[in-house]
Each structure stands twice: as structure tokens, then as C-alpha cells.
Design goal:
Jelly Rolls, 2 domains, 9 helices, globular, binds zinc ion
Length: about 350
């Protein structure tokens, strides 16, 4: 008899599976990018194409988790946070176990989400509950990719891909991680964060701060390469695209007077999230010092919540505030633009309050 028999025999009325477990040290060690890594660095957490590596250590989220699933259990529909790529490796199983993944691709995900919503199921919540059986999925308005994952198989999914997983036999132990590539940033900022704001799903990743740090990193690399006359047009294009996105973010962060607000006194490693939608506050937010949040701090709302009419209890006492100097971020942005301007040989676009 196997461990599975003990866990499943007699009067069983439910089967449990464990999600979001901190992985064993040895597994985390195995995932660290090094010269003799089994997986290429481009697929590893904090590998060379993971934007998390450009965030200060205290600002990085937990992106590697373990899952233990018993046969006949499932994970409901899920999209990894903020436009990140999904990686799932089946490390071990007892007794011929495997997992089936049902995947909806990046382009179809919004249509699929609306269709599922019409059936009373959601994919955007991070605590979905239902499994959609094949008999229902066959009527889906788009392709569903189904793959069986056996021990040693790594499944990689693009940004915004939605998936549900079914554990088939055995006890399956897997390790999963998310990575933010440069392409994740526009998906996260333009498409995912507005959904989270609407439904109140916590951002958990610090997407806009990551955009700032990644853009600064690539611009600095570009500046060095340009000096040695060895940059490529693709490297320039990456910085230009990121800068365009950063400009869009900064315009949305702007509130009258925000540039002159006093520097906040947040301690190193501290960060602020919106009390309504749990988004990460990048620069500007709206604060009421009269009303208190559940943690007994002044109520803080992100710009998007405030603009959509969400407010504190006393209403109309909210004032703009910043978590970091707006002018400081603007100076960083202008340095990046100067690198691009120098290479392009055109006039440098400087962003100021006017
Ligand atoms: Zn908010
Ligand atoms: Zn108030």
C-alpha cells in the first residue's frame, strides 16, 4: 500500500492540497542562476531577464512557491500576478502521478474571462474556487491548450495566460515561480492593474517601481555600450519602449502640487499600499489624516481609486501626498531620456511640471 491509500481510504469526504508553501532551501538553491544550472538563466527566478533582479532586495516579492497536490484535487483558474510569466516544474510524485494543465493564451484571456464570468466563475481573483470540467470547456469561445505534466516536465506560460490544473493520481510535489520580463511590464501596468483595482485583488508585485528601476538599469547599460560604440538598435528600442511606459505612468501619478510635497519619512523597506484596492503606491496617493485604516494609520488611497470616487469615511478631506520625491523620480526619468536623446542625436525630451 502507498502513502496515498492512508490519505484517501475510508469515509473520505474531502481531499486537501497545499498551495503557496515556502520551498525547501535545497530547491531554492537549485533555482539560483549559476554557471552549471540545469535550466538556462533566462528561465530562472532572478535570472538575467527577470526584472525582479533590478528591484532593491527589500522590494522584491516572494515569487517561488511549492505545491503538494493529491490525485483528484485541482487548482482553480489563475493568472500569475501583474503580467508575469508562469513556470511550473513537477519535481516528484508517488505512484505514476501527473498533472493536467488547461491553459488559455494571452490573446484569448479577456474573451475567455467574460465567458467564464457569464457562467458564474472568475479567473482574476487569486482565490477562485471552481474547476471547469471538459464538458463545459468544450463550449469555450477560444482554444484551450491541454497538456499532461509528468515528473521533470517544466511548463512555461506567457504573460496573462490563465490556467487551471488537475492532479491526476499520486501525490504531486511541484515548484512554481513567476518572472517579470520587460514585456510583462506593459501587460501588468496597462491591462492587469486596472482589473485588480476594479476587483480589489492585491498587486503584491511592485510593478511601477520595477518599471523605474528596470528602465534606469537598461538605460545605464545602453549608455555604457554607446560609449564603446557597441549597442544594438534592439537595446535602444527596449529603453525607448520602457521610457514611453514610464512617461504614461508618471502622467497618471501626477497631481497638482505633487512636485512640491515634502519628502515622506518612510523607513527603508517600508512601503504603502492602497487601503481600498491594495495596489502598491508608487509616488502619489491621497491621504486623510482624520480617518484611520484597519492598521490605525491615516487612510491612504491610490490615485485611481480616488479618481473613481472612492474615498474615506469623512469624504472630501483627502489631500495628495507622496511616498517618494516626485521631482527625484522626474530627475531619474530625465536622465534616461537624455541617454536616448544623445544616441538619437535629437533634442532631449525633458519632462517638467508644465
Ligand atoms: Zn486603490
Ligand atoms: Zn477622512
Amino acid at each position: 500500500s502507498s502513502a496515498l491509500d492512508i490519505l484517501t481510504r475510508h469515509a473520505e469526504d474531502k481531499r486537501l492540497h497545499a498551495v503557496d508553501i515556502t520551498p525547501p532551501k535545497e530547491w531554492l538553491e537549485w533555482l539560483k542562476p549559476r554557471r552549471d544550472s540545469v535550466l538556462p538563466s533566462a528561465l530562472l527566478p532572478l535570472g538575467h531577464s527577470d526584472m525582479f533582479r533590478y528591484l532593491p532586495v527589500h522590494a522584491r516579492a516572494e515569487t517561488v512557491m511549492c505545491y503538494f497536490g493529491l490525485g483528484d484535487t485541482y487548482s482553480p483558474w489563475f493568472k500569475d500576478p501583474c503580467g508575469s510569466l508562469t513556470h511550473n516544474l513537477l519535481v516528484d510524485t508517488n505512484g505514476n502521478g501527473s498533472s493536467f494543465f488547461f491553459i488559455v493564451g494571452t490573446r484569448d484571456v479577456d474573451r475567455f474571462s467574460s465567458w467564464l464570468h457569464s457562467l458564474g466563475q472568475e479567473i482574476d481573483q487569486d482565490n477562485g474556487t471552481s474547476f471547469t470540467p471538459l464538458s463545459v470547456l468544450k463550449n469555450a469561445p477560444c482554444n484551450i491548450y491541454i497538456t499532461e505534466q509528468q515528473v521533470g516536465d517544466l511548463i512555461v506560460m506567457p504573460p496573462r495566460a490563465a490556467y487551471q490544473r488537475f492532479n491526476h493520481r499520486g501525490i504531486n510535489s511541484s515548484i512554481a515561480w513567476s518572472r517579470m520580463e520587460t514585456v510583462s511590464l506593459p501587460f501588468g501596468i496597462q491591462l492587469e492593474l486596472p482589473i485588480y483595482n476594479r476587483i480589489g485583488r492585491a498587486e503584491t508585485y511592485r510593478t511601477k517601481l520595477m518599471l523605474l528601476h528596470s528602465t534606469a538599469h537598461y538605460a545605464e547599460e545602453l549608455r555604457r555600450l554607446h560609449k564603446a560604440a557597441s549597442h544594438t538598435p534592439e537595446q535602444l528600442a527596449v529603453v525607448e519602449d520602457l521610457l514611453e511606459l514610464l512617461d504614461e505612468v508618471l502622467i497618471n501619478e501626477y497631481a497638482p502640487g505633487a512636485l512640491n510635497l515634502p519628502e515622506p519619512k518612510l523607513e527603508e523597506g517600508m512601503h504603502l499600499t492602497c487601503d481600498f484596492c491594495a495596489s502598491d503606491i508608487f509616488i502619489t496617493y491621497f491621504e486623510c489624516t482624520k480617518c484611520r485604516s484597519s492598521s490605525n494609520d491615516p487612510v491612504a488611497l491610490c490615485g485611481l481609486c480616488y479618481a473613481s470616487g472612492r474615498t474615506c469615511q469623512c469624504v472630501r478631506k483627502m489631500k495628495p501626498a507622496v511616498v517618494r520625491s516626485f521631482q527625484g523620480v522626474l530627475d531619474q526619468r530625465n536622465q534616461i531620456a537624455a541617454v536616448v536623446g544623445e544616441i538619437r542625436g535629437g533634442r532631449q525630451s525633458t519632462m517638467t511640471e508644465r
